[in-house]
Amino acid sequence: MKRKSMGLALAAGLVLTGGTVQATAAKKPVVHHEQTVQNSFLKKLSADRMYNTIALLSKQPREAGTEGELKAVHYIENEFKKLGLKTKIQPFPIYDFKTNHAYAKIAGQDIEEKPYAFSGSGSGKVTAPLVYAGKAKPEEIGDVKGKIALVERGDIPFIEKIANVLAKGAAGVIMFNNSAEGNQFGQAGEGQNIPAVAITRASGLKLAEQLKTEQLIATLDVDIQKIEKTSYNVIASMKPTSKKTTGQVITIGSHHDSVHGGPGANDDASGVSAVLELARVLSKEKTDTEIRFLTFGSEERGLVGSSYYAAHLPKTDTDRMVAHFQMDMIGGRDAGKGKPAGGLIMYTIDGKKNLVTDLGAKYSYEIFKETIPYGELGRSDHQPFHELGIPSALFIHSPVEPWYHQPTDTLDKIDKKKLLQVAKIVGSSAYEIADPKSPAIVKYPFEDRPVD
């Protein structure tokens, strides 16, 4: 495989502050190859086409496992096929859960309100000591082996909380809310076979206070019926067109599913629109690197589709993958208001810069004379790629708009300028890797990457 080394100059100095990297005064970056991107490639990107894609996809909800998702999947695949790309629809199982009953008793007495069984909770009846595990971060869990963990909502995802206490041997989970909004929340995650229920904040705080002075025995009795459905990933491969190729692969992704009852115009028809638009434009360019365009199902259920895709990649593929660009919620009119670059940020799983964020910073400055901060966040489909050792980042506007995960996430809230902003940055970054005129990328950790 042909490999060339490349040292990347950042578009600005970046300073880590409180988990988020803020851009300092911008300096003109060094361009390492003849810059033809802005004069040709970028002019071909169309915000109107992206907007029209969002209009079509957001006509109905695309909840995973529904007819709405399947219609979107067929539309996306057909758009890829029109470009002559090799496509594949990758089905995978997902599960709905019907609660037949969920009970929780403390010291033999029913809890003050009827508990809510987490989606994906395991079935079973368990009686064991109740122990407080904070927010279930690994460092605060303590001894929960064979016990029922009392957990507070907040800071990390539900699935991660339950996985953390399960890994320490917990026999059940009672989670209380971090607000006064009741107890209708919670997702246990498929495959985490442990009874898990949600209760109100008032009840949870009362139990936490009691545990300071007395031992409590809790009983959980949960009966869940598991119903299998099918969700889908859409995969489109664009092979190199140059005579000399690098043998490397870059991936550009979004998720096509929406929440229940939500049209998902920004979350994440906006990301899909950019993936399709970049496929349209890049498919006309000469490349020496394979590009895969991906849309994932069941992101809203806990990154199920992207995790399935990553788990089923052969090692020969992952060894060749040098970068993954994930776009989620990139067109929200009211997201990131009052912030530089409209609130656009690049998130990595570990909060550290990598090849993707370096390129994103470079092209944000070159095209828009703005720098993008980067920070630490999971909860989107860049995570499974990071776990495979592939440099990855999520491009998103933050903070999110008020209609996040609401039926009001509709087309009229989309900003074409924001769509084009992200498409240009991600497209230019990906094309630098795939352009035969540019140096190829060696997939090393950033600190070990050779510098020109």
Task: Describe the fold and architecture.
The chain has 452 residues and is of the alpha/beta class. The chain has 2 domains: 12-94 and 229-448, Aminopeptidase, CATH 3.40.630.10; 108-215, Glucose Oxidase, domain 1, CATH 3.50.30.30. Helices cover 25% and strands 26% of the residues. The chain has 10 helices and 16 strands. The chain has helices at residues 47-57, 67-82, 158-167, 201-210, 265-282, 304-311, 315-318, 355-368, 383-387, 416-434; strands spanning 12-17, 20-26, 86-106, 109-110, 116-117, 124-132, 148-152, 172-176, 196-199, 217-238, 249-255, 290-296, 321-327, 344-348, 374-376, 392-397. Strand 1 (12-17) and strand 2 (20-26) form a beta hairpin. The longest helix has 19 residues, at 416-434. The two termini are 20 Å apart.
